[in-house]
Amino acid sequence: MPTPALQRVLCVEDDPDIRTILEFSLADVGGLQVRCCDSGTAALAALADFAPDLVLLDVMMPGMSGPDTLRALRALPVMQGVPVVFLTAKALPHELETLLLQGATGVIVKPFDPMTLPQDILPYWEHGRGVAGPQEGGAG
Amino acid sequence: MPLHVLVADDIAASRGQACDLVVSLGHVAHPVGSGAATLERVAIGGIDLVLLDLLMPDMDGFEVTRRLRRHQTLRWLPVIVTSALQGDDHFVLALEQGADDCLARPLHAPLLGAKLRHYERVLALQAGLGLAAARHQAILDNVVEPVLTLDAAGRIQDHNRAASTLCDPGGEPVHHGMPQERLTGEPWPAVRQRRQLALRRRGGQRLVVEPGWSCWQGQGTAQHTVVMRDVSEREHVRRMQEEFLATVSHELRTPLTSLLGAIGLMAGSAAGALPPRAAALATMARRNGERLERLIDDVLDLTKIEGDRLALSLRPLAVAPLVLDAIAAIASLAQTRGIQVLADDGLPTHAAQLRLDGERFQQVLANLLSNAIKHSPPQGVVRVALQADAQAVRVTVRDHGAGVPAAFRARLFEKFAQADGSDGRAHGGTGLGLHIARLLVERMGGQIALDAVDGPGACFSLVFPVQDSGDDRRPGVLLVDAAASSPDLLQELAGDLVQVAHCTTIPAAGAWAQARVVLANPQAQGDADAFVASLRRAAGGRPLLLWGDCIDADYAARVGLPWLPGRRADRAALRAWLREAAPIP
Q: What is the 3-state secondary structure (H, E, C) of B233-268?
């Protein structure tokens, strides 16, 4: 069975300018299908008609924070095995540790390079699939 | 000093005789005619001793003695019972009820005199002890810090006034016999290793304290007294400042993300090809944005170090793997510039261990390596060497660039020092890197220096004295875990049984020298099966334990290794495994 390609990325980010950069980077540069949401609540609602292969999640958001959103996503059966990567402006090593311990697949530190972001997220996608174990065949 | 003697007797004649005798011996007599009157009179105070007739009609001497002994303040009052009954049985009974002494009637004057003199001495000693105890209690109660005394099993024996409002999570106040764990949440005796404890007061107020322990021998066993310095206010201020710094960092980086992102997309022609002159401007803007980013990082680092808010997590670490990791981390920069970074042959594989903060040590190395790369001529070589002897460990980074101008060497490690402005701009430096490196190295107990070299180029050295660990015979445990906080957790769970060294990935052979056993967490190490396989090869037969909650018992059984679930591991199970795998020599 050939390895499926990373296709759909869900971005959750409250800053509209950074959302624009993310969309530009992942869609225009990376050729991916991108859905951007401005809050954790909007992200959960978006799952109704968008099944992401990977989620990029801002950490500090008003209302539902990144870690809150991560917990809500992880509780959903459809999100099992979908890698979630935090985007954070916090760069202290112990803060990154804490985020990883909360169950994130990886952390990308802001500012990120939009020209390389589509490649930078690939290892997390592959790693996430490895941890999830062998793919279940079909839709069950 | 004459004693005030209460003479209790229901028969007036014998009461009178006893009073006369007491007065004739130089003391003061206070006659009462019943048991009830005895209790009333002693309650008023001023009585030193009771001469108590056992046989009285309303309340006999036995009952009076029992009641006195149950009384909070009167239980120490000396009681001499008297009786005209034949035999000793009733005296034995009275002494068992708590009487101090007995005398047969009729009273024998010299014997009564001798006994009263004896109680004068006992009362004087008691008064002295009482005074000393009251003084100690007054001092303790006026100490503003909570003070607890614990027995050898960690149960609370007594406490001062400042500790009296402490309570357990359920609101139960501190009391005699309460295990200290109910207050501190930390097991005994590991609690004595903690630098800070979180306590609560009745009413829900939380406080953070720094405990100071002293151990002394009392009643044949060890007793522990702990004075708890309240640092809640300091911790609060520290947290506020940390939050402020985190917010500043976040607020500066968020606009920078959009700014650099937009410029990066433009410079990368993601929005269409730019005319050459516009592309040059976009590249310039990006270069300076990146410089601003580094400056923000450096200023925040410096603010932390200078404000003494940088928490270093120092632990024994093998130096060689840290050096190799730092070289690997800089590889892409070196490649971009066409520079080779080479570790000298024979990085010592024996025990070059230091107490370091691994992250910060690598930050220093990264700074030295990136400086060396930036200042190297095209196709240049940067050499990294590690030498270790009994006194010191020395790491050197040598480049073959232009070297440091003589006039500038003295200011090299100062704030915003750069050989000249144009040089700094050309290399995108912030002028803070070497200053921060020096502060970090000094905080870790080492020194950074610019060495004299033959020929062109510069050579920076880090020298750390080797700490004397001659007395530490605890078995070494190597923990391979990507999480930096995990060794603290393991050390805490394992207590004093072992000393923990830490590597984030399977390290080079040098780090294994002191390890008797190996714990490894497959989280964030790529494919778990491949990780376990290379771990087995590297461990060379040492006992291995899989650690962490990204795997489970089924997985561990499949690869044939013991397993514990990391932070949720049962302390006793971990210790049992360690004791068996690495007995103390």
A: HHHHHHHHHHHHHHHHHHHHHHHHHHHHHHHHHHHC
Segments in B484-567 forming alpha helices (H): 486-494, 528-539, 553-559
Across the interface, whether the CB atoms of A60 and B253 are under 8 A apart is answered no
d(CA A78, nearest CA chain B) in Å: 20
Q: Alpha-carbon distance B86 to B90, whole Å? A: 9
- Residues of chain B found within 8 Å of residue A113, distances taken between Cβ atoms: 260, 264
**Beta-carbon contacts of residue B474 (< 8 Å; ≥ 6 apart):** B496, B497, B498, B499, B584
Amino acid present at A93: P
Query: What distance in Å separates residue A46's CA from the closest CA in chain B?
Result: 24
A111–B246 CB contact, under 8 Å: no
A9 or B571, greater pLDDT: A9
pLDDT more than 90, % of chain B: 30
| Cβ–Cβ < 8 Å for B563, B553 | yes
3-class secondary-structure state, position B159:
strand
CA B451 to CA B12: how far, in whole Å?
105
Q: Shortest CB distance from A24 goes to which of B253, B265, B484?
A: B265
Looking only at the bridges linking them, the beta strands covering B381-388 and B392-398 are antiparallel
Express each pLDDT in B32-91 by its tens digit.
999 999 999 999 989 999 999 998 888 889 999 999 999 888 888 999 999 988 888 889
Q: Do B264 and A114 touch (CB under 8 A)?
A: yes
Cα separation, B189 vs B153, whole angstroms: 8
Contact A91 B527 (CB under 8 A): no
Q: How confident is the model at residue A24 (pLDDT cuts 50, 70, 90)?
A: very high
Q: Is the confidence at residue B353, as pLDDT, over 80? A: no
Beta-strand ranges (E) seen in B367-485 are: 381-388, 392-398, 447-451, 459-465, 476-480
Q: Flag if B270 and A21 touch (Cβ within 8 Å).
A: no
Closest Cβ–Cβ partner in B258, B270, B485 for A18? B258
pLDDT tens digits along A85-140: 999 886 566 677 777 888 888 889 888 999 999 999 998 888 766 544 333 333 33
Q: With beta carbons under 8 A apart, name residues in chain A contacting B249.
A: 89-91
User: Mapping DSSP to helix (H, G, I), strand (E, B) and coil, where does residue B549 land?
Assistant: coil
Chain A residues whose CB is inside 8 A of the B289 CB are: 111
Q: How is residue A64 written in tokens?
A: 């539902």
CB contacts < 8 A (A, B): 84
The one-character DSSP state at A26 is I
Give the other-Cβ count within 10 Å of B437's Cβ: 22
Q: In chain A, what are the domain boundaries?
A: 8-128
Q: Which tokens is A74 given? A: 């992880």
Q: How far apart are CA B320 and CA B327, in angstroms?
A: 11
The answer to whether domain A8-128 has CATH 3.30.420.40 is no
- Backbone torsions φ then ψ of B462, nearest 5 degrees: -115, 130
**The model's pTM:** 0.50
Q: Which of A101, A110, A127 sits opposite B257 (nearest CB)?
A: A110
How do residues B381-425 score in pLDDT, each as one tens digit?
999 998 887 778 899 999 998 888 888 888 888 887 665 544 444
Q: How far apart are CA B61 and CA A11, in angstroms?
A: 89
Is pLDDT above 70 for B298? yes
DSSP B455: S
> Sign of the CA dihedral B7, B11, B16, B22?
negative
Q: Which two tokens stand for residue B370?
A: 């990136």
Q: Can you tell me the distance from the alpha carbon of B259 to that of A20, in angstroms, rounded to the nearest whole number?
A: 11
